[in-house]
Amino acid sequence: MLFLYLLNPYGLNIYIGFLLTGLIILQKGFLVKNIDIGFLLLFMFSLTYAAFFSFEPKAGNQYIIIYAIAPGTLYLLGKYFADKVDGNRANLVLLLLCAGSVFSISAILSVFTDILQNGYNVVDRNLPNYWTGQIIPATIMGAYFTIVMTIPALLIPEIKKLPFVMKIVLLLTYIISIACVLRIGSRTQLSISVITLLISLFYVMPRQSFKRNFFMFSLFALIIFFIANTVSFDLDQDWLSAFAGRMEDGGGEDIASGGGRTERWVKSMENLFEKPLGWSEDEFGHAHNLWFDVLRIGGFLSFFLLIAFTTNAFLSVRKAIKKNKSAYALNNLLIVYTLSICMVFMVEPILEGMFDFFAFFCFFIGVVKKYNTDYPVID
To answer: If DSSP codes are grouped into helix, strand and coil, which group holds residue 72?
Structure first.
């Protein structure tokens, strides 16, 4: 049911989310044992944001309840499944890998189906959802690729219990995802793939054997040589049409300002003091930042509660990474997931249109919290 929620077939994850909430509540003794400061901050934020959203529920009245209960439910589900693997770090890695991969399936189906039907010679970056046919903006569609775009970074360290066949499946998923990301012209997702790969290399290389490092760099060199000699990167190529259009529309100044986002962030900071209870979207549109868009809709109280929750979450990730320095496959995954999610949080509204992405983050933090509290520290 968790995977069905992440997959969201035919837009049914709203109802699956309600069912998951009920099942979590019915787990005997689970709530009492697993309520912590992170959950309380998240729950207070959710209720406050839902209350402000109810004054102008553009997405629909059902989202009042969804905003109020879904984040906390996914947070507790993270704890629930982390508890089921009983502290086995290899299983934690597999759990998070599977959850992240399932989360991307609907987007891959949507974009890759369009590529097979229409190719790359289509100007419109917005594509229909595979399940419902509803047109989804490219920015929202791109967010669902975030985790699978980190696959090369995740596979750098040796992951115990991950079969070779599964590694091949993950790499094929990544290749298909690259094709999809180029179709929707997502610079953010390509940046996430490159940056997380570099960060992972810097983290993992000193911690693994020379033999594995040599094999890894030899493999990278062969792949780069093969691509350089077989693939044309001319922006006039059909498969680069959507991406080339974005590069032509947004020059160096546009990229430096984050597509005009920095100006909106400055205005949002000014409105924190001038309009602390929020403001209309008509003023300058989305702030394209998780925290500032929450400030616009939910006012200063929701804003500071979200800051408190995310700060607590990032500190928990830091604690988990320091907990067992030898578990570098898990630590690498925690670093990569956190970095990639933060990169999207910084440049997109998230709760408006990408709520499932925030819910996945809550699930991920729930797993981290359980790992921190219930399993022994190993230096």
So the answer is: helix
Look up the pTM and report it. 0.92
Residue 74's closest CA among 297, 374, 315, 357? 357
CA 156/CA 204 separation, integer angstroms? 7
Instruction: Give the residue from 347, 352, 345 showing the smallest Cα distance to 281.
Output: 352
Q: Is residue 329 part of a domain?
A: yes
What is the C-alpha separation between 371 and 259, in angstroms, rounded? 38
Q: Is there a domain that residue 262 lies in?
A: yes
Measured distance CA(331)–CA(344) in Å, rounded: 20
Residue 379 included in any domain: no
Number of domains in the chain: 1
Domain, as residue range, for 124: 2-374
Give the single-character DSSP code of 378.
B
CB of 157 closer than 8 Å to CB of 204: yes
Q: What is the pLDDT of residues 38-76, one digit of tens each?
A: 999 999 999 999 999 998 887 778 889 999 999 999 999
Calculate helix-pair angle for 187-204, 328-347, nearest 10 degrees: 150
- What distances in angstroms separate CA 59 from CA 72, 305, 355, 356, one per listed residue? 20, 22, 11, 14
